[in-house]
Amino acid sequence: MTSGRKLRILVAKPGLDGHDRGAKILARAYRDAGFEVIYSGLHQTPEQIVHVALQEDVDLIGLSCLSGAHMYLFPRVIELLKENKAEDITVIGGGIIPVDDIPKLKKAGIKEVFLPGGSLKDMVDWAKANVEPCRYGERKE
Amino acid sequence: MGLAKRVLQGDVRATARLLREVEEELPGAIDELKVLYPHTGKAHVVGITGAPGSGKSTLIDVLIDAYRKENKTVGVIAIDPSSPFSGGAILGDRIRMQRHATDEGVFIRSLATRGWHGGLSKAAANVIHIMDAMGRDVILVETVGVGQAEVDIMNFAHTSLVALVPGTGDWVQTLKAGILEIADIFVINKADKQGVNEVEVELQAMLQMGAPSAAAWKPRILLTEAINNKGIDDLMEVIRQHRESLIASGRYEAYLRERSRLELVEVLKSSLMDRVSRMATEDDYVEKLIDDLASRRVDPYSAASDVLKRIVQEGKF
Q: Which of A1, A108, B32, B165 is the most exposed place for a label (fewest CB within 10 A)?
């Protein structure tokens, strides 16, 4: 019935932050937009997140961090993706992130940063506009 | 190097990519599957089905642990439903299995049903083949949370587990046809909850009510508390006994033949359907037939027979 290309997204909670209400709401919004969403659950290491992303062949990773550790955790995910030759996976971040950190995160490879007060619609629209479902369709290699 | 060759070497990225191509039904995937097919048929496939919340994912989590202690590599296919409204899905089974996320010996893939009924997804058969070819010793397949009639798993798994929990109904439920008939092993999970004896007694009564059979395997009933890792050694032992019984009784061979027959029919159906739907929308010949049908100059059975003849004559699918 609904075969065809579908965007696959990993919503992940790196680090020791235990607040995932936002991540769950976002997962739900992506689901309702027609995406297939894998939610990692709480307290994930960057290594776990990258392994899941590789096995599940996701197109987009959304990292949520409300604990203040984003400057270590987010770039570490990018680093591990590079080590696994998976830098084609788009990574975005969100949470309690000081605006001064945003340019640094973007420089590290985080494509977009979403802050409290942002709308779910914007996040869904961003994914639709910036992420190509099934990047392998054209079999680049 | 082709994807299939990399899958045979156990390459995670290539495997994940091929799984995606198979799921999206991309044209190149079939050639890769052709390369892999001779390397399949080695893994033991264990299906786990049961109602939502019966503990299927948690059971798989502890089974992964048990198999890893035996140094076996494990593939997991975890299926969750797609939304009938948006087509989207939350694939949440692997949350229970995250402690294995960085173990190279464990490959977990979540699939959405994408409109497929029966408890699995359309791609499940090929996803099993790919994990098998990748060299996984055991493949654990978790169906969507099911009700009564989703029995597809029995055609894919060598050993079918049906997970139940206490407090889900009285004797009449166990009389009904459906998933209770397909179990090789009943797992009454959450066995610390009230009502566990009732479920066990009802199941035993159900099994005794059946006509006496000469079958080599009689379904077994086991109690577990997956979340506390209780009863898992026994479960592993009974899964092992079931596999040995399959092989010793010759039913393993029979199963493989039956499985192959079903697969051939499925592939034929799907390629014919594709061909027919392309014809029905693109072909002038079919348009004329439809005109004839509409004006009652021909009946649909003769028309369909004409179309089939034409497909065979063309020799291409």
A: A1
